[in-house]
Here is the input.
Amino acid sequence: MIRRTMLGLLAAAAIAGQAVMAQAETVLRVTLQLPIKHHLGQNMLDFKKEVEAKTNGEIKIEIYPSAQLYKDKEVPQAVSSGAIEMGIASLTRFAGTIPAVDIFYVPFMFDSQEKVKKATAPESPIRKALDEAILNTGARVLWWQAFGQAIVLSKKKPIRLPEDMKGLKVRVFGKTIGETVKVLGGSPVLMSGSKQFLAYQRGAVDAGMTGITAVKSRKLYEVMDYLPLPRHADIEFIVIINEKVWQGLKPEHRKIIMTAARRVEKELRDKMNAIENQALEDIRPKIKVIDLTEEERDKWRKATRPVVDAYIKNAGELGRKLVDMAGKL
Here is the structure.
């Protein structure tokens, strides 16, 4: 009888202990539109490993890649509303409420990697202004993920000069990128990254704008023929967390998360050139890569200058301030 009582007490204690552990564990789900093998997915895996280790498993991070839960355009609202705790989205996906975020997609605004690094650094006034604006939507920016330079893909017809864009339907991923296509005489088609492959395969569009690494990870070289490199814009992604969820975390956990975020952000930014160069080398045998001359790039620069005025008109006072800040880099 005594033995049965002791066993019962031990079992009850074990169940109670498991309940306490379950209560102590906080699960943060992360939606990612790209495959986990993409460098953004690997960056998140690195973050997950450090946070889970340093919180002794009290925080568990679950990653849902390849737009399993939400398409990229849905991520800002999903995180802001609390439908999911965290998400990774292109910066331009906030342009609907904060048009000024498109500063990085204004052609040749940041025409060197040095300028990009200065503009995206945590202490940069450009970045601080955008992070604060995004926080007002109910989502906090944890860190920025370097995606790389914007490129152009085309089928059948190579696009080497600005006038080659005339009359083409072009996949774009944001309003300002769309303005660039319009200025060059094309018709922009806003489309999520996860839909590109089928759109190119079926001929729904003639060309598209994306990042170099996406061509490799999404195997876009299988359905497109040419890849010119105007290097006209910088693509940035951000990792966001619902602000109420953030405030509900223990202070020591928030510190661990921010420490890990700063580390993985810097590491990715520092190796972005190498990642892009390797991606280019890997796809060169599979698609015709067109390396533009500086003279040709200058023609793109001159042809797309009107986009700056369109951006300022759309982005208002904040946009004008960001353009001024960018000019001082």
Notes: The chain has 13 helices and ten strands. The chain has one domain: 24-327. Residues 1-23 have pLDDT under 50 and may be disordered.
